[in-house]
Write a structure and sequence with these properties.
about 100 residues, Transcriptional Co-activator pc4, Chain A, three-stranded antiparallel sheet, 3 strands, about 20% helix, alpha+beta
């Protein structure tokens, strides 16, 4: 009877992080998601409401992701949110009124 061959593990490459000259951090409390067959488009912005009649959105960054990268982001966010809730408690979302074809915030 033959012995199973030991599994050969390929070493992982080292990851070297750097930032471009135009890199910036930003705070967003609004994210609009659009999708097509080829990609997902995330538009980040800040939302404010000075009166009950009007909500202002100031978009500052749009990011295109491939469907594969969007799914990887979904997995990473889900994992990190689960850890956050385990540490700090469950997050509750306000009820959303869905409009026909509008952005998701």
């Amino acid at each position: 009877m033959s012995q199973p061959k030991p599994e050969v593990q390929t070493p992982q490459p080292a990851i070297k992080l750097s930032s471009t000259d135009d890199y910036r951090d930003g705070y967003a409390n609004s994210v609009q998601v659009r999708m097509s067959v080829w990609d997902f488009f995330l538009v980040f912005g800040t939302m404010s409401q000075d009166s009950p009649e009007e909500v202002k959105l100031h978009n500052f960054q749009g990011v295109y992701l491939s469907p594969q990268q969007a799914k990887a982001l979904w997995n990473v966010l889900g994992h990190n949110l689960a850890q956050y809730e385990q540490t700090f408690g469950a997050l509750a979302l306000e009820p959303q009124v869905q409009s026909q074809g509008g952005p998701v915030h």
